[in-house]
Amino acid sequence: MAVIEIKDLHFSYTAEEEVIKGMDFTIDARSTAIIGQNGAGKTTFAKLLKGLLKPTRGEILLNGTRTKEMTVAMLAKQVGMVFQNPNDQIFKYQVLDEVMFGPLQIGMDKEAALGKAKQALETVGLSGLETTNPYDLGLSSRKLVAVASILAMDTEVILFDEPTIAQDYAGKERLKEIVLQLRNQGKTVITITHDMNFVADVFERTIVFASGKMIADDDTKSVFLQRDVLEKAYLEQPDVMKLCTELGWRESFLSIDEFVSAIQK
After folding, report:
1. In the UniProt record, does the keyword Nucleotide-binding occur (predicted)?
2. C-alpha to C-alpha distance for 251 and 167, rounded to whole angstroms
3. What CA–CA distance (Å, rounded) separates 236 from 239?
4. How distant, in Å, are the alpha carbons of 80, 103, 130, 203 from that of 107?
5. What's the predicted TM-score (pTM) here?
6. Strands 213-219 and 205-210, how do they pair?
7. Average pLDDT of 72-98?
8. Which of 1, 33, 64, 103 ranks highest by number of CB atoms within 10 Å?
9. Phi first, then psi: what are they for 35, rounded to 5°?
10. Residue 5: closest CA among 70, 69, 75, 58
11. Cβ(159)–Cβ(49) under 8 Å?
12. Average pLDDT over residues 20-32
């Protein structure tokens, strides 16, 4: 399990405006969702964690090591990131080559990389498409190719940027299973998303960003019960919670399963 410490983190693209404005928190073993509207600083934070950007002040420590002292190549062995748009990530002409690329780049031998790639493709439901050109697949499947390419690297930290984009119900359920599987393997799983229902169904902890600051950090249910926080971040409760409110229930539920179980009782 990785421990990620965020200490007085600041970042600016220009001297005139800060995008990240002094964040302090620690990411632990819990699966964690980071939510907030566009411009809140979520994707910038992800790039800082991945080492694609360097803090202008403060620091990120990964297992006690300052990430600004690590190269992108060093971080790649520990932090895997699935980009929001798979077209920004995919460049090989065959699915298998794409999924093997990451493992080979971080030093796996070819046999190990092949084994990890095949296992990852099975996990995302794309076995049998190894020789297919990724760009002959639909956006949903290309997203799963990108997911597989990161799973195959077997990093300690996995960061998903908007994983449910272009996914239907079955795709979202598969992603849910993948997150839970990674969590059970002791991986540190983080997602950046606008999909509140996915957050409610899957993630143990939720952090809210607004205007470059962290304004809430708690277990997911507790965060979604803080209506003032959600309003400040221009977010809404998950659908099941909104339904509970509309029906006048005293208790709120995060998932449909919880809600149905309560009705049955």
Report:
1. yes
2. 30
3. 9
4. 14, 7, 22, 31
5. 0.92
6. antiparallel
7. 91
8. 33
9. -125, 160
10. 58
11. yes
12. 94
pLDDT in tens, 201-257: 999 999 999 999 999 999 999 999 999 999 999 999 999 888 888 887 878 888 787
Please, what sign has the CA dihedral across residues 175, 89, 2, 209? Answer: negative
**Token couple for 91:** 């460049």
The CA distances from residue 112 to 2, 102, 103, 107, 249, in Å, are 23, 12, 8, 10, 53
- Phi, psi dihedral angles at 66 (to 5 degrees): -70, 125
Share of the chain above pLDDT 70, in %: 100
DSSP annotation of 87: G
For the record, the structure tokens of 68 come out as 């600004």
Q: What is the C-alpha separation between 200 and 48, in angstroms, rounded?
A: 25
Strands 157-161 and 188-192: parallel
The identity of residue 224, as a single letter, is F
With contact defined as beta carbons under 8 Å apart, do 227 and 205 qualify? no
Decide the pairing of beta strands 65-66 and 17-27: unpaired
